[in-house]
């Protein structure tokens, strides 16, 4: 399953809910959720731990806009908009953690 | 301009720059207040500190990159920029990551500064 998160991890509990509930699959961080993958962020260790069972992707244009593309934690995969579409098409279903 | 009353205005910015419109709207109101010769302070707390992160490139999201405006505030006599240390640390940031000179304050210092204001506006 594909899980899409778009809220900052330090402002809303969306990412925490996603990581708590999600089974194996993929998490795609978009919009303000990309901050979770910034090295040194309070949310980064939680994301790193989740990577043991989930693949974590970050939408690169959103990371570039927020000036964190050069400080993403190890193990995350960056995707462009075409990659976003491929992820949606490549999973049987998806959940947006609004 | 006739002499008016200058009040102490504080703008409290707690939102990241592009996920919502708050950061951009705050800048607009800051520039208006400065045009009326008010004593303006900007505070960046929580995800608001991301507004000042160096190196924003918004071409990919087809959105205006308004971050250079923070560097132009000096030209409008808006020179009091404060950032909460605890907010920087929670995001793995330090002063060197910011695109403009700021004063870094502790939560307590920021609270005392807030108490001194006539008007506090939240974004």
Strand-helix topology:
The complex is a heterodimer of chains A (98) and B (123).
Chain A: E1 2-5, H1 14-21, E2 25-29, H2 44-50, E3 54-59, H3 60-65, E4 77-79, H4 81-90, E5 94-97
Parallel strand pairs in A: 1-2, 1-5, 2-3, 3-4
Chain B: E1 8-13, H1 22-35, E2 39-44, H2 68-72, E3 80-84, H3 85-90, E4 103-105, H4 107-115, E5 119-122
Parallel strand pairs in B: 1-2, 1-5, 2-3, 3-4
Can you summarize this structure?
With 98 residues, chain A is α/β, with parallel strands linked by helices.
Protein architecture, described:
The complex is a heterodimer of chains A (98) and B (123). By secondary structure, chain A is of the alpha/beta class. Chain A has helices at 14-21, 44-50, 60-65, 81-90; strands spanning 2-5, 25-29, 54-59, 77-79, 94-97. In chain A, strand 3 (54-59), helix 3 and strand 4 form a beta-alpha-beta unit. The mean pLDDT of chain A is 97. With 123 residues, chain B is α/β, with parallel strands linked by helices. Chain B has one domain (8-122): 3-Layer(aba) Sandwich (Hypothetical Protein Ychn, Chain: A), CATH 3.40.1260. Chain B has a five-stranded parallel β-sheet. In chain B, helix 2 (68-72) links the parallel strand 2 and strand 3. Chain B is globular. The chains are: A alpha/beta (98), B alpha/beta (123). The A-B interface holds A 6-8, 10-11, 31-32, 35, 38-42, 44, 60-62, 64-71, 80 and B 15-19, 46-47, 50, 53-61, 63, 65, 90-93.
Count of helix runs of chain A = 4
Name the assembly state: heterodimer
Share of helix among residues of chain B? Answer: 25-40%
Helix content of chain A: 25-40%
Largest sheet of chain A: 5 strands, parallel
Q: Extract low-pLDDT stretches of chain A.
A: none
Mean pLDDT of chain B: 95
Which homologous superfamily in CATH is the superfamily of chain A?
DsrEFH-like
**Unreliably modeled segments of chain B:** none
Rg of chain A computed from alpha carbons, rounded to a whole number of angstroms: 12 Å
Count the domains of chain A.
1
């Amino acid at each position: 399953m594909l899980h899409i998160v778009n809220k900052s991890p330090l402002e809303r509990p969306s990412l925490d809910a996603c990581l708590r509930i999600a089974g194996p699959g993929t998490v795609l961080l978009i919009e303000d959720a990309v901050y979770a993958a910034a090295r040194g962020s309070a949310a980064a260790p939680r994301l790193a731990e989740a990577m043991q069972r989930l693949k974590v992707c970050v939408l690169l244009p959103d990371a570039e806009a927020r000036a964190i593309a050069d400080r993403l934690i190890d193990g995350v995969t960056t995707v462009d908009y075409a990659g976003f579409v491929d992820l949606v098409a490549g999973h049987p279903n998806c959940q947006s953690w609004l | 301009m006739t002499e008016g009353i200058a009040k102490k205005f504080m703008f409290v910015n707690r939102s990241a720059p592009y996920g919502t419109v708050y950061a951009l709207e705050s800048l607009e109101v800051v520039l208006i207040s400065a045009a009326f010769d008010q004593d303006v302070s900007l505070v960046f707390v929580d995800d608001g500190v991301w507004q000042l992160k160096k190196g924003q490139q918004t071409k990919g999201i087809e959105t205006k990159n308004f971050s250079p405006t923070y560097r132009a505030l000096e030209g409008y006599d808006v020179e009091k920029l404060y950032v909460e240390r605890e907010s920087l640390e929670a995001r793995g940031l330090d002063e060197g990551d910011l695109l403009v000179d700021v004063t870094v304050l502790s939560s307590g210092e920021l609270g005392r500064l807030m108490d001194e204001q006539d008007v506090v506006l939240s974004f």
